[in-house]
Design goal:
single chain; alpha/beta; Rossmann fold; 10-stranded mixed β-sheet; 5-stranded antiparallel β-sheet; protein-arginine omega-N symmetric methyltransferase activity; Protein arginine methyltransferase NDUFAF7; mitochondrion; transit peptide; methyltransferase
Length: about 400
């Protein structure tokens, strides 16, 4: 990958950080996700669903509670973007099975948006036991199967291939791996941060500043920006626009959970290898590259088509979802000390502010009518109060 990038840089000059990330993560031959995608204990990073089944169960309950609050529509597409190893979907489907009587009159299907052939194979084994049919004729999907609990599952390369309809979207640690542009304020105005070969060491890369304004600088820096260093992820903006217009048109909701901030942080671009921080410019293609999600940018890109809630810290969201009660039940039902210790350890990982409790945030897109009755303005007393949005309800009460 380094040789490939070095040739490219010699031929055409420095590239944007976004282009560098795209090559390092998704290059068909040598990209990190296309080649390996190291999720889990043995990989390069670990995600909340891999730590505890409770995480996925509570998210499953969030979707069912929102589906009920929206009047129990008779179809329910669960669409997950970048599903990792499929652990989260597997935990959600277990909840759907346990609450089968509630969902009995509803046509439930699962739609996974996954670009990595390696990861889609792992997901297929996890969710269907490996019984899948590649290239189904009737769909824009590249693979389909039936989950172990009897629910149809389809795989797509792009969110635009997912059929329209009443859908709940899930993006857990998805937006943080999308390519970002980086900008630095200088005495001559804003300059874009680029990646180039280091002239002192031809086998190494370095960051340089663009000599003048780039198209991205003109498009993505807001006139009111007060920070000196800014990261912008245009791809995240496009995806949020698509989610918002689908929710506005067909109903449903989106739940986004990720590292992030509300427009306050500056330099968050980093790499992970074997669960340790890794120099982002060293050995491209061998480490996961990530940057914190700017939720204020996502809110702006929803363009008022949907209501937005959050970001709210993971520990608050899970507390509001009843994680403490669920933990007590699991502790009472576990017979041995080792299991109990594991449960307490994973609870601590998810909830401790020093670990994942404060780093991760939850953010939701919901139809406006979910938060405000359409005719509330005319006859405020005539409508029953709207049910609070699970997980976020503390925010609504403030």
């Amino acid at each position: 990958m380094l040789r490939h990038l070095a040739r490219k840089l010699r031929a055409s000059g420095p590239v944007t950080v976004a282009e560098y990330m795209r090559e390092a993560l998704t290059n068909p031959g040598q990209g990190y996700y296309t080649r390996r995608g190291g999720v889990g204990e043995s990989g390069d990073f670990i995600t909340s669903p891999e730590i505890s089944q409770v995480f996925g169960e509570l998210i499953g309950i969030w979707y069912i509670s929102e589906w009920m609050a929206m009047g129990k529509p008779n179809t329910f597409q669960l669409v997950e973007l970048g599903p990792g190893r499929g652990t989260l979907t597997d935990d959600i489907l277990r909840v759907f099975k346990q609450l089968a009587s509630v969902l009995s009159k509803c046509d439930v299907s699962v739609h996974l948006v996954e670009v990595s052939p390696k990861l889609s194979e792992i997901q297929a084994v996890m969710l269907t036991g490996g019984k899948v049919q590649p290239n189904p004729e009737d769909k824009s999907a590249y693979m389909k199967g039936i989950s172990k609990t009897g629910i149809p599952i389809f795989w797509y390369r792009d969110i635009q291939d997912v059929p329209s309809g009443y859908s709940f979207y899930l993006a857990h640690e998805f937006f943080d791996a999308l390519p970002i542009h980086k900008f630095q304020r200088t005495e001559k105005g804003w300059r874009e941060v680029l990646v180039d070969i280091d002239p002192e060491a031809p086998d190494q890369l370095r960051f340089v500043l663009s000599p003048s304004r780039t198209p991205a600088t003109q498009n993505f820096i807001q006139p009111e920006e007060t920070r000196d260093h800014v990261e912008v992820c245009p791809e995240a903006g496009v995806i949020v626009q698509r989610l918002a217009s689908r929710i506005e048109k067909d109903g449903g909701a989106a739940l986004i959970a990720d590292y992030g901030h509300d427009g306050t942080k500056t330099d968050t671009f980093r790499g992970f290898q074997n669960h340790k921080l890794h120099d982002v410019l060293r050995a491209p293609g061998t480490a996961d590259l990530t940057a914190d999600v700017d939720f204020s940018y996502l809110r702006k890109m929803a363009q008022g088509r949907t209501a937005t809630l959050g970001p709210i810290k993971q520990r608050e969201f899970l507390k509001n979802m009843g994680i403490d009660l669920r933990l007590q039940v699991l502790l009472q039902n576990s017979g041995d000390t080792a299991t109990r210790e594991q449960l307490l350890h994973s609870y601590d990982m998810l909830m401790n502010p020093e670990k994942m409790g404060d780093c991760f945030n939850f953010f939701a897109l919901l139809p406006h009518h979910r938060l405000v009755h359409p005719d509330k303005k005319d006859k405020p007393e005539s409508k029953s109060p709207l049910p609070p949005v699970a997980g976020f309800n503390e925010l609504l009460l403030k």
